[in-house]
């Protein structure tokens, strides 16, 4: 284990309503040390919970907006979907869970020398697998809850899944970059907030923005697309082209995009701005 440069701003966060960007960057880098002492079972369980929490927000967005566009317009329907979808990250941040996209910020700890890069790869592998299992489990639960028997809701879920698998590699990659840029900014701001109300607001605005904009989140898609695949087997519901191969063809570029967006545009950018001088001094 390499010994990183001290980050004095994070040793004892000041008692105030929010941290400055420099203080927040330090605190995130310090918090990254948790991967060194956290057991595999703990990481896996927290990852399963995160997959379920994101799926809670995703299914809520589907149900709330399945018939909204003809009434309030597509733009406002997207705004409502994003508003309720933000529940997922609120649960992750406030209740505690390991979300792959948010863990892009572990790169701050590696860049600052607190953890090895191999620790990040190991964490990402376990967390991504746990998020996937949690998302699939929740999709299975929702399918067997029979809440999807209402035709319009099922059709909306199928349409959402179909649209995602039809994206080109380049479009999915770019939408993934833009998505996790916002998700990691939400985590950054939630870390800066010192109370629950501040953390809720920090999660809400960026997540609402990415959903309303149509960006792509890998863990959310691990719920959306399998839900469509389950529904495609129901008599009367058709989804041509919706296959597990299409699921992988979406998840791969979206995941790569999420990594680029979180690691480069948030993790590296703020480390370079606030911590690079400390690392090299």
TrEMBL record:
Spell out the InterPro entries in the cross-references.
Aquaporin-like, For/NO2_transpt, For/NO2_transpt_CS
Residue ranges spanning the membrane: these are: 43-64, 76-100, 121-147, 167-189, 201-224, 244-273
Localisation: Membrane
Which PROSITE patterns does the entry link to? Answer: FORMATE_NITRITE_TP_1, FORMATE_NITRITE_TP_2
**This protein's UniProt keywords:** Membrane, Transmembrane, Transmembrane helix
Query: From which domain of life does this come?
Result: Bacteria
Q: Coiled coil where? A: none
Q: How does it sit in the membrane?
A: Multi-pass membrane protein
PANTHER family per the UniProt record, alphabetical: FORMATE TRANSPORTER-RELATED, FORMATE_NITRATE FAMILY TRANSPORTER (EUROFUNG)
Q: Which NCBIfam families match?
A: fnt (TIGR00790)
Q: Which family does it belong to?
A: Belongs to the FNT transporter (TC 1.A.16) family.
The protein's name is: Formate/nitrite transporter family protein
Q: Which organism is it from?
A: Geoalkalibacter halelectricus
């Amino acid at each position: 284990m390499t010994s990183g440069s001290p980050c004095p701003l994070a040793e004892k966060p000041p008692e105030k309503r929010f941290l400055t960007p420099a203080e927040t960057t330090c605190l995130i880098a310090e918090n990254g040390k948790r991967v060194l002492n956290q057991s595999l079972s703990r990481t896996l369980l927290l990852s399963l919970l995160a997959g379920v929490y994101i799926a809670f927000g995703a299914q809520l967005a589907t149900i709330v907006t399945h018939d909204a566009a003809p009434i309030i317009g597509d733009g406002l329907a997207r705004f409502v979907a994003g508003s309720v979808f933000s529940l997922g990250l609120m649960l992750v941040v406030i209740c505690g869970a390991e979300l792959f996209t948010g863990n892009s910020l572990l790169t701050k700890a590696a860049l600052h020398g607190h953890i090895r890069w191999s620790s990040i790869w190991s964490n990402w592998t376990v967390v991504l697998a746990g998020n996937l299992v949690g998302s699939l489990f929740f999709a299975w639960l929702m399918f067997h809850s029979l809440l999807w028997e209402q035709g319009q809701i099922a059709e909306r879920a199928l349409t959402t899944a179909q649209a995602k698998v039809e994206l080109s590699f380049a479009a999915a990659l770019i939408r993934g970059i833009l998505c996790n840029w916002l998700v990691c900014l939400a985590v950054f701001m939630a870390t800066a907030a010192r109370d629950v109300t501040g953390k809720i607001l920090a999660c809400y605005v960026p997540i609402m923005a990415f959903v309303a904009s149509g960006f792509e989140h890998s863990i959310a898609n691990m719920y959306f697309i399998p839900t469509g695949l389950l529904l495609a087997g129901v008599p009367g519901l058709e989804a041509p082209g919706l296959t597990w191969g299409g699921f992988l063809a979406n998840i791969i570029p979206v995941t790569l995009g999420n990594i680029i967006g979180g690691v480069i545009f948030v993790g590296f950018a703020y480390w370079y701005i606030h911590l690079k001088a400390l690392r090299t001094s």
